[in-house]
Amino acid sequence: MRNEIIDLIGVPENETLIYFAIPPGPEKLGICISALSNTKGGYIIFGVKVTDDSKIKLLGISKGFRNKVVVDGALEKLNSQPILDYKKLTRGSQDYYCISVDKSKLPILTMGKYYIREGIRNIEKKMENKTVVFVSHSHNSEDVVFVDLEDKTSLISYLKGLEIYHNFEFWIDKKIVTGDIWDKKIQSNIKRSHIALLLISEPFLNSKYIMDKEVNKFIKQRKEDGMVIFPIILSACSWKEHDWLSSTHFQPRDGKTLTKDYKDRGDRDELYQIIRDELKAISENFDE
Question: Which of 139, 193, 208, 228 has the fewest CB atoms in 10 Å of its CB?
Fold first, then answer.
């Protein structure tokens, strides 16, 4: 791969290749990373100048090139961490620095804006994609969370307005129909989801399938694509024993659980409204 990137040095800029003679400001670099992530991926190479008449000049980088400062400032502008790789390259007597940017499955925004790459330009685009929420749960929790969508006391029913008014889609395994290969269906919908809504109980934490096939995928997707993991503690359980869970913001707060501390309909609706507002705020990072 390193030799392939070296061979790119001097090729005209294109949809997947961007040059800089010297590092730009963090805002401009953030736009480039966003545009490549949201299109096909590609490379940002430092030490190459494109003149006004589109000629390529190979300048190399200075010995004092501070790659961490260059990249960190740009990453602070992004809504989530894209998949990047960094390489110092040597061609002839000159050194260059390359940021390799993978195509992201989830939108990468910079300063709240969404960019794509068209030819040699970075274009701001309005996002129109749905915010897909994968609802992960133990079947022991069905009576609490979604007996059916007509049950006005259920969480999923309360969140229905997000689908109607705010371009959300909640994917629940109840949507699997006879004849579907259920594991394949679940895995494919995890991949297309932006948010994982986890309905935590002891049966949830004790389920080998949920922990191995769902939670592990959520954690991997959070790291690689910026998926948001949103846990809701339904009942007393051993959540403190799971580092990935104890280190994640969840609802309700202060050690409370939904079934014990929100038995009153009014109190429960207040909690559901907090959850709804937080999900909507997360979504706004994707479609501003």
Answer: 208
